[in-house]
Amino acid sequence: MKRKMLDILACPIDKHYPLELFEINTEDEVIVDGAMFCTQCGRFYPIIDEIPVMLPDDLRKKSEDIDFLTKFREKLPEKIVRQGKPVHVE
What we know:
The protein has one domain. The protein has two helices and four strands, in the order E-E-E-E-H-H. It has helices at residues 62-71, 78-81, and strands at residues 20-27, 30-37, 44-48, 51-52.
């Protein structure tokens, strides 16, 4: 995802803007892995292989979210890993 995209993205649940960005892996101006966080509703949206996954809760795959959180547990803030919606890990 190009960093500029953050300027047009809002939370699909509550339309809050701007989203907080956490970059994990980047190449030039492209975010390969990371997460966006809505400070209003507490939801996180992973960026996986340059693609932001911004689906509503009922369309998200819990196992994929848990895998993402587990893989990047040390690189993401606690508010995403332990308290993020729709899922989090202990």
